Amino acid sequence: MITGFLVSALVVLVPLFFLTTTTDVFFINKQLLLVGATGILLILWVLERIFARKFIFRQTTFGLPVLAFFFASLASLLFASSNKIEALLNPLGVGSIITLTVLYFIVTHALSKKSISWTAPAFVLSGSLLSLFTVIHYTGALNPFISIEFIKNTAFSPTGSLLTTVLYLIV
Fold this sequence. Notes:
Layout: H1 2-16, H2 27-52, H3 63-79, H4 84-89, H5 94-110, H6 113-116, H7 119-139, H8 149-152, H9 162-170
C-alpha cells in the first residue's frame, strides 16, 4: 500500500522536480530524488519481506535482460572505467542504472495489481501538470512571480528542455 503510493508519487515528482541550488538544475536533483525514493522503497520492501517471512522471485519477461544490462554496466564500471567515482555519480552512468534496476525489481515484486493501477493516473496527473506549467510559462504569465532569471526564459522546462517535455508527454 505504502510502496504503491510512493511509486505513484515518484512518477508525479520526477518530471516536475528541479532545484536551483545546485550547478545542474535538472539531472543531479532528479537523480538524487530517484536514489532517495528507491532507497526508501527498498527498505520498505525488505522490511515487508522480513515480516512476511517469505521471499518470492517473480519471473518476468524483462527481468533477465534488465539483469544482463545491469551486470554489463557493472563489469564496465569495474574493468573499463578509469574513474569509478565519476562513473557512479554521473547522472546517466552506472549509479543510475543500479538505481533503475533496483526500482524495476521493486515495482515488479513489491507492488500488487491494485497498487500498480495507481501509476496510470499518476502519469496522467504528471503529464497534465507538466503541460499546464509549460503552456502557462511559455506565455510569460508566470514571469512576474519568478525571481530567478533563467527560469523566465520561455525555453525553460522542468524536464530540462522542451524536447524532453514533448517526448515525455507523447509517451
